[in-house]
Amino acid sequence: MNGWRLTGLLSLLLLAMAAMFLALHPDIEGLRLAIRATARTSLVLFALAFSAGALVQLVASDATRWQRRNRRYLGVSFAVSHAIHLAALIALARTDSALFWTLTNPANIVLAGTAYLFIAAMTATSFDRTAAWLGARKWRLLHLVGGWYIWLSFAVSIGKRLPQGPIYWAMMAAAIAVGIVRLIAMSRRAKAVPAIP
Length: 197
Prior knowledge:
mainly alpha, Four Helix Bundle (Hemerythrin (Met), subunit A), 9 helices, 86% helix, globular
């Protein structure tokens, strides 16, 4: 499975998962299950897209080459997952605003809102025509800064939830590992660039 077919399949699975939670629990609990599940699927899909280039550079294999080849489609699938996450959050805020504000605060809204702006911009420039319109240099800058900002947003969000159980420790370990892989690959690329005499 490759390309837009991969994005389509993953999007259908994500929508089916959220619909299943809401069908089984047509109340606040269903929304909270959808929020938690999409936070986790978003992290997995983001990690796969964010680490794709670095992993194929550090550990070339059929799996990492597939991952690199489908980085764009995994990234768009991440955007779909996080859009469902946002829709569930908005539904929770409208259904039970008191509960919503016990789970978040204005600083979190700003941090997450900025991440969503980056996600929207990066998704919009994940198509050949829009990427060409933006230009290669600006495209690389947007996806570099946006990727690291989204990584930071995940790290902060997960870090606050570490006392809630082992799943968050596993999520934090995954986020840290992806960041380290990216930094190692960036360091190796910098060393490989010949010095200007």
